[in-house]
Specification:
heterodimer, A: alpha+beta, Gyrase A, domain 2, Alpha-Beta Plaits, 6-stranded antiparallel beta sheet, 5-stranded antiparallel beta sheet, 11 strands, B: alpha+beta, Ubiquitin-like (UB roll), FAD/NAD(P)-binding domain, 6 domains, 7-stranded mixed beta sheet, 25 helices, 50 strands
C-alpha cells in the first residue's frame, strides 16, 4: 500500500479477511470512516475548507488532502468530506459552527456507503470489467474521483495510487459490486 | 484412408500434431491449425449441411465468416452450440461436430422433398399461403412454420459457460489484419498511439497467409506477417486481439468486439470466460476489413464441391488442402486464375479454366499454357452435375447475339468460381456512412465518413498487394495523427507480385437451360434463386428493401455480404433501372452472429440485478422468514412459525401487533435529508401540505403529486430543526422522488438555499408497533421522555438507542401506538436483534410486509402504487385534508384545477365489504352496478387491495369506484367466473374509526 496517497484515512479494515488476494490484484474492505456531504455556495467554500481542515477542491473530479482529511469534488456545489471515524462529532460541529451564518447543508453519510480498496497491477483492468471509464494515468491521474456505474450499481471511484482505487457503493449494493469484482477476477487465476 | 486431400507439404498447419475429431459421429483426423472446414475438406468431405428451404445438399463455399452453408453444431460439456460456421471453428482434439437441418441423416434427408416440390414454394410463399382462415394461424400454420423454420437446435440446458466484459479506450482501432490492417497498425503504433488490432481469425495476416506467389521486401508474405506481428507485440501501446470480431459500430466511435477466448481449446480452463465482450471507445478507426469474393449465379451453383476460387486457394496455401483432384475453375476475373495455377503446382488436375471474358489477359493465358491448362474463354458454366458432390459442369459458349450455345460437359470433382470482389463495407455502413457506387470498380465503396473512421485497402475497393500495403500505412499514420497529433516515420515495406487483377461480373449468368426449371442461387443460406428475385419484381416489389423482405435475400447470417450485389443486379435488370436506382439495404449490427451469452454477460443469477438486503437479513434467514422482492430489495414477507402457512402466519402477526406489539424492518423506506434556510419553503412547494408552521420535533404526513395533479408518493416528514427535515418516501419511490426534487432545485428554484441528500442507506429503521411498543423500546432509549404528553403521536427527537445516536419517530402505519427508530446503518443488526429479543418478553412478534399491508388496510391508509395507479388525485383518494388551502403554489396545484380532475364521475377510493364475510375479492377484479352485466358493460372500478382482516375476523377490500364517495351503503357487484359477488360500499377505515389507539 506504499503507493497510497499521503494520508492515513483509507486503511484496510483490520478484522476483515481480504475479499480477493491474487498476485496481480487484491480487494480489501476499508475501515469505517466519517463521511459528510457538504453542499454550499461559492462564498462559503473557503470557510468550509478552513473549518474542515482541508481546502475544498474546485476543479471537477479532483481531491484535496491534508492530515487525516480528504475532500472529494462531487459536483460544483457538492463535496464529500472524509475524516477518521472517531472525528465525526468534532468535524461536524466544527463546520456547523463556522458556517452558522452561511447557507449550507451538512449531512452525515458515514454509514450510507462502504468502501473497498482495489489494488494491484490488474486493478484498473478489473474495474474496467464493469466501468466504462478510461483509467489510463493520463486521463484519470492519482487523486481523481468520480461517481459512475459499475455494471448496474452506482459507485464512487477514487484513485489513491497508480494501482490503487477506492470503490465506494451504498451499503446494500456492496455485495453486488464486490461479488462481481471477485467473480470477474476469476480468470486471472487461470493457468 | 486418412486425409486423402491433404497436400504433401505447405500450409500453416502443424503436420506434427494430429488431432482427432468427429463429424456426425464419424471419426476423422486433422491437424493443429485446421479449421473444421479445412479438416473436413482434407478428408474429402464436402457435404456438410442441408439448405434452409429446399433441403438441398450443401458444401463448404468459403473460407471465412461469410460462410452460408457450412453451419454446424459443436458439442461441448454435453450441450451443443448450433449454427457455428465450420470455416471459423478451429479444430481441437476431440471436437464433436454435427450437421444440421437434416432428418434422419445428412445423406438421406426427408425434407429434400421440398426441392422436388419447389414450384410450390415460390418467394413470398408464406405470405400467400397462410392467410386464411384466420383461426388457423395460431394452431396450425404457425406451429408448422416454426418447426420447419430455423437451422440447428437451440441448446437445452442453461449456459454452463461464463462470459467476460471489458471496457477499453484506444487512440486507433484497426479492424482486420491483412496487409492493410497490419500496415495501419504498425504505422499507428510507431507514433506511440494506443492501438488495438483486431481480427476475427485465429491468426493475424488475412490474405497474406494464403499468398505464396508474391513477396514483401523479398520475403514470403507469411514471414512478413510473423515479423510485423512480433514488432507489434513488442510495443506496450499496442493490444493485439485475434479471434475477435468487431461486430458493431455505434455512435461516437463506440465499437463492440466479440473475443472468443476458449472456443478453440480442447480443455479450456473453467476459470476462463468462453467469450469476452469488448466495448471500445476509439478516437479513430481504420476499417481494413478487406473484400470478399462473389459467387457466380449459374444454374446449380450450390452443389457440394463448388467453392469460391479464393477459398480454394486459401485451403490449399494456408491449410494444405486440395478441394478436389479434378478441379474446374469458372471465372469472370483474373484472381481465380492464380488459384488454378497454385492448384496445378500442387499436382491437382485443373481440368479447365472457363472465363466469361472473350479475351482474358495474355499474361494469364501464357501461364496457363505453360502449365498445360485448358482455357475456355468466352464461356460460362450453365449447369452442374452430381448431387451430394459435383461431378461435372455444363459449359455454354457466349455468342454475339447474347445467346448461349451448348459447349459440352467437363467432368470434375470440384469447381472453383469467382464473380469478382465485393468490398466489405458492413462496418462503414453501421457507422451510418452511405456507400457510393463506383462504376469503374463495379462496386459500392465507402463514401463520406460520418464518424472518425476511414476504410483502407480492399474495404474501399483498392486491390493489389503494394497498393493495399501503402494504403494501410497511410491510413494508420493519418488515424494516429488525428487521434494524438503525433507522427512517426515508418519504413514502408514494398511488395512484388500480388498485383490487382481485372474483371468481374454481377448478376445471373446467361444459359441455355429451361429458365423455369433450374435454380441459380443468389442467397445460399436462405435458398433464394435468381428466379425468386425476378418474381418479386414481377409481383410489384420495386425497392430493394421490399425485394429483400419478400424473398429474404440478404437476410442470412452474412447479411448479404455474398448475395447483395448479385441480387441488386438481377433486380436492376428486371426493373430495367440502373442499379443505383434500386437502392441498397443497410448493414446492421452484428456483423456476424453473436452469442446471447456475450450480450447477457454477468447479468445472470444473483448478479442479474443488485440484490439489496437490509440489516435484519441474516437474522430473518436464521429465523425462517420468507422474503419477497420489492424492486431490488429483499424484504421479509412473513415469518411462519411451527409450520404455519402464509395465511396463518399473517393472521397471527396482525393479531399480535394489535394485542401486544410487533417489530418490523422499515429500513428500505426512502429517506432524504432536506437542509438549508429555505428547507421549509422548498417542502411547501413540493408537497401538498403546509410545512412552515410545523415545529421542530414534530412530524406531518406529506403527499406528493406530479404536475398533472396525480398522487406519486407519500411519506412522513419530521422537522429536526428550523433548517433540517427528515423526509421519508415509499421504498420504490425513493430514487424518483429524489430525482424529481433535484430536478426542481436545479431547473426551477436554483435561488433557494436548500440542498437534498439521500440518507436511505445511512439509517437502519425498526418499526415497533402495538399497545406495548413504549414498554419495548423504553429500556434502550435515552434522551426522550416517552410519555404520551411529552412525546405525542407525530413527534421526532434525537436520542440514543443502547448508547448509539438515533432519530426516534413516534409514527404509525398500523393505527397502533408506534415508534420508528433510525440508527446509523452499521448498528442496524444490533438494534434489530436487541428489539427482537425484547418483544419476545412481551409476547410480541416480528412481522413482514404482508401483515404491514393488512394492518394499514384495516385503517384505510393508501399504498401509493397499489391503491393508486398514477391517475388518482388527492380528492379521488379522499385526502383533500392533506391539501393546504393557503399556499400560493405547490407541484400539482394547477393540475388539480384541470376541468377533468374536478368533473363528476371520477373514480374514488372506497372500502368494500363482501356480503359474505368469508369471501375474499381478487385484487384487480372489476366492479359493476349490475349483478349480471351484459357483455361489453364498462366497469365502474376495480379492487385495489383485498385481505382477510384478523381484527374484524372477516374480509376487507379497498377499491376505486366511479363516484364511489357517494355510494356508501350501496350494493355493487364483482363479477367473477364462478358467479357475481355482491359487495357493500363502505368507508375506507374499517378498524378503530376514531383513531383512539394511536394516541395512547
Amino acid at each position: 500500500m506504499s503507493e497510497l496517497l499521503a494520508n492515513d484515512l483509507i486503511t484496510p479494515d483490520a478484522g476483515e479477511i481480504p475479499l480477493l488476494s491474487l498476485p496481480s490484484v487484491s480487494i480489501l474492505k476499508a475501515a469505517p470512516l466519517t463521511r459528510l456531504s457538504l453542499r454550499c455556495r461559492e462564498a462559503t467554500q473557503k470557510d468550509a475548507g478552513a473549518a474542515f481542515g482541508a481546502e475544498l477542491p474546485m476543479s471537477p473530479l479532483s481531491n484535496t488532502t491534508a492530515a487525516k482529511r480528504a475532500a472529494l469534488w462531487m459536483g460544483p456545489d457538492e463535496w464529500t468530506l472524509l475524516a477518521p471515524e472517531e472525528d465525526l462529532k468534532t468535524v461536524f460541529d466544527g463546520i456547523e459552527e463556522k458556517l452558522s451564518a452561511h447557507p449550507h447543508a451538512l449531512v452525515d453519510i458515514s454509514d450510507r456507503s462502504e468502501a473497498i480498496i482495489v489494488s494491484g497491477d490488474k486493478a484498473a483492468w478489473l474495474l474496467n470489467t464493469g466501468i466504462f471509464i478510461d483509467f489510463s494515468l493520463e486521463v484519470f491521474p492519482v487523486g481523481t474521483v468520480t461517481r459512475t456505474l459499475f455494471h448496474k450499481s452506482p459507485v464512487m471511484i477514487w484513485r489513491i495510487g497508480a494501482d490503487a482505487f477506492v470503490v465506494e457503493a451504498w451499503v446494500s449494493f456492496m455485495d453486488y459490486v464486490s461479488g462481481l469484482l471477485v467473480q470477474s477476477a476469476t480468470e486471472l487465476e487461470a493457468a | 484412408m486418412s486425409q486423402p486431400f491433404r497436400t504433401e507439404k505447405g500450409g500453416r498447419i502443424d503436420r506434427a500434431e494430429q488431432l482427432t475429431f468427429t463429424f456426425d459421429g464419424e471419426e476423422m483426423q486433422g491437424h493443429k491449425g485446421d479449421t473444421l472446414a479445412s479438416a473436413l475438406l482434407a478428408n474429402g468431405v464436402h457435404l456438410v449441411g442441408r439448405s434452409f428451404k429446399y433441403h438441398r445438399p450443401r458444401g463448404i463455399l468459403t473460407a471465412g465468416s461469410e460462410e452460408p452453408n457450412a453451419l454446424v453444431g459443436v458439442y461441448r460439456n454435453g450441450d451443443q452450440t448450433p449454427n457455428l460456421r465450420a470455416t471459423q471453428v478451429e479444430l481441437y482434439q476431440g471436437l464433436e461436430a454435427i450437421s444440421q437441418n437434416r432428418f434422419p441423416s445428412l445423406g438421406f434427408d426427408i425434407g429434400a422433398v421440398n426441392d422436388l416440390l419447389s414450384p410450390l414454394f415460390p418467394a413470398g410463399f408464406y405470405y400467400k399461403t397462410f392467410m386464411w382462415p384466420h383461426a388457423f394461424w395460431d394452431k396450425v400454420y404457425e406451429p408448422i412454420i416454426r418447426s420447419a423454420a430455423g437451422l440447428g437446435k437451440p441448446p437445452k440446458n442453461p449456459d454452463h459457460d461464463v462470459y467476460g466484459n471489458i471496457y477499453a479506450h484506444c487512440d486507433v482501432l484497426v479492424v482486420g489484419s491483412g496487409p492493410t490492417g497490419l500496415a495501419a497498425a504498425l504505422a499507428a503504433g510507431e507514433t506511440g498511439a494506443k492501438v488495438m488490432l483486431v481480427d476475427e481469425q485465429a491468426e493475424f495476416g488475412g490474405s497474406l497467409l494464403s499468398e505464396v506467389s508474391a513477396s514483401i521486401d523479398g520475403k514470403d508474405p507469411a514471414d512478413f506477417v510473423t515479423e510485423t506481428v512480433a514488432k507489434l507485440a513488442a510495443m506496450d501501446n499496442v493490444t493485439l486481439l485475434p479471434r475477435t470480431t468487431a461486430f458493431g459500430y455505434f455512435a461516437h466511435n463506440f465499437i463492440s468486439l466479440a473475443e472468443r477466448v476458449t472456443e478453440h481449446l480442447s480443455n479450456p480452463d473453467p476459470k476462463l470466460p468462453r467469450e469476452r465482450l469488448w466495448q471500445v471507445r476509439a478516437k479513430e478507426v481504420v476499417i481494413a476489413a478487406g473484400a470478399i469474393e462473389r459467387p457466380m449465379v449459374f444454374p446449380e451453383n450450390d452443389r457440394p464441391g463448388i467453392l469460391l476460387a479464393d477459398a480454394g486457394r486459401t485451403y490449399l496455401n494456408r491449410y494444405g488442402v486440395k478441394v478436389g483432384h479434378k478441379v474446374l475453375v469458372a471465372t469472370a476475373c483474373d484472381s481465380a486464375w492464380q488459384a488454378a495455377f497454385d492448384l496445378a503446382d500442387h499436382g491437382v488436375d485443373v481440368v479447365a479454366i472457363v472465363d466469361l471474358r472473350e479475351t482474358p489477359p495474355e499474361s494469364l493465358m501464357s501461364i496457363a499454357e505453360a502449365r498445360g491448362i485448358r482455357v475456355e474463354a468466352g464461356c460460362v458454366v450453365t449447369g452442374t452435375l452430381g448431387r451430394k458432390r459435383v461431378k461435372g459442369a455444363l459449359i455454354g459458349r457466349l455468342m454475339t447475339s447474347g445467346q448461349v450455345a451448348s459447349g459440352g460437359q467437363i467432368a470434375c470433382d470440384a469447381l472453383l468460381m469467382s464473380g469478382g470482389w465485393t468490398p466489405t463495407v458492413s462496418l462503414y455502413s453501421q457507422s451510418r456512412g452511405k456507400v457510393v457506387w463506383d462504376s469503374e470498380k463495379g462496386a459500392y465503396v465507402p463514401g463520406v465518413s460520418v464518424q472518425k473512421e476511414r476504410s483502407a485497402g480492399g474495404a474501399k475497393g483498392l486491390y493489389g498487394l503494394q497498393a493495399t500495403l501503402e494504403d494501410g500505412y497511410a491510413a494508420g499514420e493519418e488515424a494516429a495523427k488525428a487521434a494524438t497529433g503525433k507522427s512517426a516515420k515508418v519504413t514502408y515495406a514494398s511488395a512484388t507480385g500480388g498485383e490487382a487483377g481485372s474483371g468481374g461480373i454481377l448478376g445471373a449468368l446467361p444459359h441455355d437451360r429451361n429458365a423455369a426449371r433450374v435454380k441459380a442461387f443468389v442467397d445460399y443460406q436462405n435458398d433464394v434463386t435468381a428466379k425468386d428475385v425476378k418474381l418479386a419484381v414481377r409481383e410489384g416489389m420495386h425497392s430493394i428493401e421490399h425485394i429483400k423482405r419478400y424473398t429474404t435475400t440478404g437476410m442470412a447470417t452474412d447479411q448479404g455480404r455474398l448475395s447483395n450485389m448479385n441480387a441488386l443486379e438481377i433486380a436492376s435488370g428486371a426493373l430495367q433501372k440502373p442499379m443505383t436506382d434500386v437502392g441498397l439495404t443497410t448493414f446492421r449490427q452484428p456483423y456476424t452472429p453473436t452469442t446471447f451469452g456475450l450480450f447477457a454477460g454477468v447479468s445472470r443469477g444473483d448478479f442479474f440485478d443488485p440484490v439489496r438486503k437490509t440489516p435484519s437479513h441474516d437474522w430473518v434467514v436464521e429465523n425462517g422468514g420468507v422474503f419477497e422482492d420489492v424492486g431490488q430489495w429483499k424484504r421479509t414477507w412473513y415469518f411462519p412459525k411451527n409450520g404455519e402457512d402464509m395465511h396463518a402466519a399473517v393472521a397471527r402477526e396482525c393479531k399480535t401487533v394489535r394485542e401486544s406489539v410487533g417489530l418490523f424492518d422499515a429500513s428500505t423506506l426512502g429517506k432524504i435529508e432536506v437542509v438549508g434556510p429555505d428547507a421549509a419553503e422548498f417542502l411547501e412547494r413540493m408537497y401538498t401540505n403546509p410545512w412552515k408552521k410545523l415545529a421542530p420535533g414534530r412530524c406531518r404526513y406529506g403527499l406528493l403529486l406530479n404536475d398533472a395533479g396525480f398522487i406519486t408518493d407519500d411519506g412522513v416528514i419530521g422537522r429536526l430543526a428550523e433548517d433540517r427535515f427528515h423526509v421519508t418516501t415509499t421504498t420504490g419511490g425513493a430514487p424518483s422522488v429524489f430525482a424529481t426534487m433535484e430536478d426542481y432545485l436545479q431547473t426551477e428554484w436554483p435561488d433557494l438555499n436548500v440542498w437534498i441528500t439521500s440518507t436511505t442507506e445511512q439509517f437502519a429503521v425498526a418499526a415497533v408497533q402495538g399497545p406495548k411498543a413504549r414498554e419495548v423500546i423504553a429500556p434502550f432509549i435515552e434522551g426522550v421522555d416517552l410519555s404520551a404528553d411529552a412525546f405525542p403521536h407525530m413527534s421526532v427527537k434525537q436520542a440514543t438507542f443502547c448508547g448509539v445516536p438515533c432519530r426516534l419517530f413516534r409514527i404509525s402505519f398500523t393505527g397502533e401506538l408506534g415508534f420508528e427508530i433510525n440508527v446509523p446503518r452499521r448498528h442496524g443488526k444490533m438494534m434489530w436483534e436487541t428489539l427482537a429479543k425484547e418483544i419476545e418478553k412481551h409476547n410480541g412478534t416480528v412481522y413482514g410486509t404482508e401483515s404491514m399491508h393488512v394492518l394499514r388496510a384495516e385503517k384505510g391508509y393508501i399504498i401509493v402504487g397499489q391503491d393508486t395507479d398514477g391517475t388518482v388525485t388527492p380528492q379521488d383518494a379522499g385526502m383533500t385534508w392533506a391539501i393546504s388551502k393557503n399556499k400560493f403554489d405547490f407541484v400539482g396545484k394547477r393540475g388539480l384545477a384541470r376541468p377533468d380532475l374536478v368533473a363528476d364521475g371520477r373514480k374514488q377510493f372506497v372500502g368494500l365489504l363482501t356480503k359474505d364475510p368469508k369471501v375474499k375479492l381478487e385484487e384487480g377484479a372489476q366492479i359493476t352496478t349490475a349483478e349480471q352485466p351484459a357483455t361489453g358493460t364498462p366497469a365502474e372500478g376495480h379492487v385495489t387491495s383485498s385481505y382477510y382482516s384478523p381484527a374484524l375476523d372477516r374480509t376487507i377490500a379497498l377499491a376505486i369506484v366511479k363516484n364511489g364517495h357517494a355510494l356508501e351503503g350501496k350494493t355493487l357487484y364483482v363479477p367473477m367466473p364462478t358467479g357475481s359477488i355482491p359487495v357493500e360500499v363502505t368507508s375506507t377505515v374499517f378498524y378503530d374509526k376514531e383513531g383512539a389507539r394511536i394516541n395512547v
